[in-house]
């Protein structure tokens, strides 16, 4: 079993005919993802290596049965693309696009509240259920099927830590890159809740960053609701205070939002917290022994 993406995923790609959209869509299809349609306004009737293109997401839902969207459109159009997916009844929208204005995402966040569409991203690598389905840009070559769930603010850390898990023979149920923007869709709490309910996930990993309070809120949630073991890593133990680092949300003010403060909050909830990315796989191996 997996969360968010799996055997029942029927993918429509918004921006399929663009260079990046075409490259990653064909890569995902080659991995086994069921890509049923693409959307590029004005190009209905065309196809990309057999994948039919429609003018709208609603057409792709009606004609091809799409239930999941992957968004590869420029930043100025991306928020509207997410809203189009929601209005068409798409259950999961994965927005890879980087650089969407915060005010646009604030509107999207408000619009999706109470609706049936779950958003991953923006500015994220997407999600993969190894051996089943890949919706995004996570390299499947470093993954293997298994029973560890993984959610991360950093895409790069997904690649590194998953590779190190696989090298130790530890497979993954689903890996979710939630993105590092300050206004985003699914977060740690939602992913942890899904992994907790997934009978084929035995342990969860979360990797966070400095800045914001997502990790502190996740720590409180874990204390109250999570029964499975959790391993974590927070990027930025050596980051200087007051400087913006990496993602838009990664800035520390005073003692709040530091890696040390986040690690302390998680450890108080029983989470094993690594001090380097490579320690994550070590701690997972010990926890599963």
Would you kindly provide a written description of the structure presented here, covering whatever features stand out?
This protein has 289 residues and is α/β, with parallel strands linked by helices. The protein has nine helices and 14 strands. It has a seven-stranded mixed beta sheet with strand order 3-4-2-1-5-6-7, with helices on both faces. Strand 3 and strand 4 (51-54) form a beta hairpin.
Task: Annotate the secondary structure layout.
Elements: E1 11-14, H1 19-31, E2 35-39, E3 47-48, E4 51-54, H2 57-64, E5 68-71, H3 75-87, E6 92-95, H4 102-112, E7 118-120, E8 126-129, E9 133-136, E10 145-152, H5 155-167, E11 172-177, H6 188-197, E12 203-209, H7 214-225, E13 230-235, H8 259-268, E14 272-274, H9 277-288
Helix pairs in contact: 3-4, 5-9, 6-7, 7-8
Summarize the structure in short.
This protein has 9 helices and 14 strands. It has helices at 19-31, 57-64, 75-87, 102-112, 155-167, 188-197, 214-225, 259-268, 277-288, and strands at residues 11-14, 35-39, 47-48, 51-54, 68-71, 92-95, 118-120, 126-129, 133-136, 145-152, 172-177, 203-209, 230-235, 272-274.
């Amino acid at each position: 079993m997996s969360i968010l993406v799996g055997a029942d995923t029927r993918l429509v790609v918004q921006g399929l005919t663009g260079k990046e959209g075409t490259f990653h869509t064909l890569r995902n299809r080659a991995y086994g993802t069921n890509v049923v349609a693409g959307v590029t306004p004005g190009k209905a009737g065309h196809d990309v290596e057999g994948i039919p293109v429609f003018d709208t997401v609603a057409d792709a839902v009606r004609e091809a049965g799409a239930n999941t969207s992957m968004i590869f459109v420029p930043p100025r159009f991306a928020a509207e693309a997410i809203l189009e997916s929601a209005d068409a009844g798409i259950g999961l929208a994965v927005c890879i696009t980087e650089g969407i204005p915060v005010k646009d995402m604030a509107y999207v966040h408000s619009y999706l509240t109470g609706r049936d569409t779950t958003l991953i991203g923006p500015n994220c690598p997407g999600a993969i259920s190894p051996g089943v389905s890949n919706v995004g840009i996570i390299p499947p070559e470093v993954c293997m099927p298994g029973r560890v769930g993984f959610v991360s603010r950093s895409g790069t850390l997904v690649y590194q830590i998953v590779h190190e898990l696989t090298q130790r023979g530890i497979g993954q149920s689903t890996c979710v890159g939630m993105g590092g923007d300050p206004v985003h869709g699914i977060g740690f709490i939602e992913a942890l809740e899904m992994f907790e309910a997934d009978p084929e996930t035995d342990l969860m990993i979360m990797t966070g960053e400095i800045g914001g309070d997502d990790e502190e809120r996740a720590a409180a949630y874990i204390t109250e609701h999570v029964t499975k073991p959790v391993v974590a890593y927070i990027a930025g133990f050596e980051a200087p205070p007051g400087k913006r680092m990496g993602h838009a949300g990664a800035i520390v003010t005073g003692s709040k939002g530091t890696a040390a403060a986040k690690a302390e909050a998680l450890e108080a909830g029983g989470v094993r917290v690594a001090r380097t990315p490579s320690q994550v796989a070590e701690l997972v191996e010990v926890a599963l022994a």
